[in-house]
Amino acid sequence: MMTKIKGKRMLIGGRWIEKEETINVYDPQDNTIFSTVPKATKEDMLHAIEAAEEGAKIAAQMPVHERLSILNKAADYVLEHSELYAETIASEGSKTITEARAEVSRCVDTLRISAEEARRINGETIPFDQMPGHENRVGYYYKFPIGIIAAITPFNDPLNLVAHKIGPAVASGNAIIVKPATLTPISAILLAEAFDAAGLPEKVLSVITGSGSEIGDILISHPSIRMVSFTGGLETGEQIAKKAGLKKLSMELGSNSPVIVLDDANIEDTVSSCVSGAFWAVGQNCLGVQRIFVTESNFDEFVQKFITKTNTYKVGDKKDEATNMGPLISEKEAIRVEEWVNEALDEGATLLTGGKRDGAFYSPTVLTNVSTDAKIAKEEIFGPVVLLFQVKDLDEAIEKANDVNYGLQAGIFTKDIKLAFEAIKRLEVGGLMINDSSDYRIDGMPFGGVKGSGLGREGVKYTIQEMTEPKVIQFKL
Ligand code: NAD
Hints:
Structural class: alpha/beta
Radius of gyration: 23 Å
Bound molecules: nicotinamide-adenine-dinucleotide
């Protein structure tokens, strides 16, 4: 049975642990305490690693049919309690209840896709006779689990991004230790409950709560950990990469995604898709539309329609189904966003709408006349702010879109297939959406970035590739 206690305990190697020392989990909307979680110590982390050393052996022995049965049962469990999961996301995080429900549904899918992919962890035969003198040899490779995975996750999709690591880890027969975001740990704990209820053997999974900088180092640097799967900001990712040592790294980092709108774009569709892509989850979205490059002939119409659509957004109570946008994850973050916008305005940018803060709430904001060298154009804003740039043509748009240290996803709106292919060839990103905004993802596609946006790919099938290692078998006949 699902606990009515939201949080208060963590899962270490199959045992639910409470601690006297706790961390408060706040609802950012009104700063009330939503729940608490145990503050894990370094010793707790060492226990989790010790348990995982055994857990990795247990997981690797688990037949595929058991793995997929557990994954499907965990998905059933999340589905059965979906409203509690959605309420939790919408309480500890920034998302509205509508956005939270969509995330729960994605999580169920992620677990089901993981179950399906468990059937397809295949190797392939190798033509050894390609080398003269090797004609009497045959062989192939298997894919084996890598061992213990350390997963560190961010606050903005507190359930599905955790499912993106646990699902493939279980599917591929690994043990996994999750350190969820300190601000939003309860969704991850509820996901651990789903796996506990589904019968995942003890020691295969730990979800350990505490400060990333305090307990994270032990996890990242421990020699028993074979892979660090991190989703979060570039700065944290770089720190982790330095400390990890000889381990496989998967780095899903941030971006300031560009969208290009050409002369022949359907403006209604484009505006609708870009506004939604810019303000989903208060713009706290690694794929969020941040920079839009519009060619001259469309610019004025695009700007007018963009402002009109943005102004229909209702900002307010996350639990109200009529609300389009809730608060940022904290007042501190809202103040940071406000400062970045004010800095751009001081440097000559024009505020087209928004720019107002009330506690953790920040209104959907549209700027133009921003220098492409401004901080707000170069860095990841991670808030509800979008920058509109007028450009001459595709060449200028591509050049400006690429002139940052990020490259996760981009969008281009055009009916001209030749220009679309030009963009495919030249945009420095991990994914390009034609006639859609950068904010498009399904959980079965390879997802990840180039440059400062990361290393490796997620998306269940691709995560499994990262979480397994080939072992070559060769027969001399
Ligand atoms: P963050 O980098 O501040 O924190 C991410 C995680 O790292 C948290 O669990 C945190 O506790 C932990 N952490 C912090 N310092 C640590 C340390 N020294 N050692 C170990 N762990 C540490 O990121 P955030 O603010 O939670 O999330 C926002 C960022 O995540 C944005 O940059 C966003 O673009 C990115 N993100 C990327 C993707 C993707 O798939 N590419 C998806 C979602 C979010």
